[in-house]
DNA sequence: AAATGTTCGATTGTATACAATAATACATGT
DNA sequence: ACATGTATTATTGTATACAATCGAACATTT
């Protein structure tokens, strides 16, 4: 590896700590633990059949990932993500996706470009057939390829981080069936700009693509999802 | 606190783990431990008078901060930051600084704006007197205020992370005395754009400001600093 | 009854003991 | 001499024991 990441991945999948970390992350992102829920070291340890040590170490990492908040001598609590945070992330991402598109224009390999083209083509097919799952998968993959093509581990990592982080919110809003075709059309335009080596246009399009995605999310009830959450929290 | 950070700060300064973390971070950033140096748990523990447990937990956090790399069952190694990484970070920062300037334009308070004005004024004074240290301090502070004024904890945290990260490189390059006045002039322009509520201009200026800072760094021997480092590594 | 101590249990923080792993040096066989 | 296997040792990984801290319930005082 030539350059080092700003943030390191947790690659150690097979140590107990790694397993605890991955499991907890998944459970938090999937919503198994709800916001502000307290995580107790022994309870988690017993559930996964390990002692407190690896659990504690996993906690420390989850804290830096922003998934839990540790109050010294008190406890670990699942963090929430506010409506404004979501907006901020999308706006930040819009800038960085633009940069990724620019760099991809400069550095993309033939294979990567071909995968992009195929992606757009396949998405068009699944879109017509109404295959939402495949469409979501292709959407993710399109962005992944662009990140890789950017040739910047640094940027790639940042964007992946953000992407994962907002996954929590995606689950709260409706899967928007009607955004599929439009989103794919935008992918196609980005891909074409990259292919034609028009970095300025690629950046601009990728930037707007993310803003459109956010606005679609708002339209599909981001605010309502939060209001609902508020209400339920008050009941308890 | 309304919104949560994407990445949490390590606030726990008074636990042993917090102290180990902060100490190690400082030592790595200051260059006490060189690139690829192995950090042994017992050795660090003895040096700071603590057992392995808090050291290990600090290690796990430093890994996610990207300052060390842990290879399972093997060891913890101080990570380097490549020449390309530095460039990437500056380019990413340029985008995000631009966004921060935009949001600052929308959200800045009177107090914050006044601090910016005072900052620029003071910097002009110290620049004429050749007070490099105060100038560097004011430079940092200018950006800090802008981050705060952006009103986005998310963005603020990202930018602070990047800023800290490149501090390691700053030490390798010369302090550029002649950039001072130009940099402050750019600050003034950014401040004026914010004051006049011209968000587009503020974003554009802040963006360019960071690119200029990077190019100045290159001119002042970033590449040479790396070449020198290569050479020394080969000798060993 | 309200405010203030106080005790006790639960939980986190740290140290230490033990297990697993990896690297090194050495021995052995070809 | 080279390759391969093996013992040794240093180091990390995990479990557990003990200390410190916090909070809730109860007791005490006014």
Report what the structure shows.
The structure is a homodimer of 236-residue chains. The first copy, chain A, has 236 residues and is mainly alpha-helical. In chain A, strand 2 and strand 3 form a beta hairpin. The first copy, chain A, is built from 10 helices and 3 strands, in the order H-E-H-H-E-E-H-H-H-H-H-H-H. A 3-stranded antiparallel sheet of chain A has the order 1-3-2. In chain A, helix 4 crosses helix 6, helix 4 (83-107) runs antiparallel to helix 9 (199-219) and helix 6 runs antiparallel to helix 7 (153-170). The longest helix of chain A is centred in the middle third of the chain and has 25 residues, at 83-107. Chain A folds into 2 domains: 16-78, Orthogonal Bundle (Arc Repressor Mutant, subunit A); 83-225, Four Helix Bundle (Hemerythrin (Met), subunit A) (Up-down Bundle), CATH 1.20.120. The interface between A and B is large, with 47 and 47 residues. The first copy, chain A, binds a DNA duplex (30 and 30 nucleotides) through helix 3.
């Amino acid at each position: 590896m030539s350059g080092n990441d700003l943030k390191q991945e947790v690659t150690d999948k097979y140590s107990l700590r790694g397993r605890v970390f991955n499991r907890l992350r998944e459970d938090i992102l999937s919503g198994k633990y709800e916001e502000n829920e307290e995580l107790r070291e022994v309870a988690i340890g017993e559930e996964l059949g390990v002692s407190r040590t690896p659990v504690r170490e996993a906690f420390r990492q989850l804290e830096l990932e922003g998934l839990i908040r540790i109050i010294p001598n008190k406890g670990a609590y699942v963090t929430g993500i506010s409506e404004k945070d979501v907006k901020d992330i999308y706006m930040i991402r819009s800038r960085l996706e633009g940069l990724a598109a620019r760099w991809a224009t400069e550095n993309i390999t033939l294979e990567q470009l071909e995968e992009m083209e195929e992606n757009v083509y396949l998405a068009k097919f699944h879109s017509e057939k109404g295959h939402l799952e495949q469409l979501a998968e292709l959407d993710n993959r399109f962005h992944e390829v662009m990140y890789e093509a950017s040739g910047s581990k640094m940027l790639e990592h940042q964007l992946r981080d953000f992407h994962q982080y907002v996954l929590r919110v995606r689950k709260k809003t409706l899967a928007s069936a009607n955004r599929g075709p439009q989103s794919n059309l935008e992918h196609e335009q980005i891909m074409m700009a990259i292919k034609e080596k028009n970095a300025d246009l690629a950046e601009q399009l990728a930037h707007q693509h993310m803003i459109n995605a956010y606005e679609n999310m708002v339209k599909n009830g981001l605010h309502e999802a939060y209001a609902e959450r508020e209400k339920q929290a008050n009941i308890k």
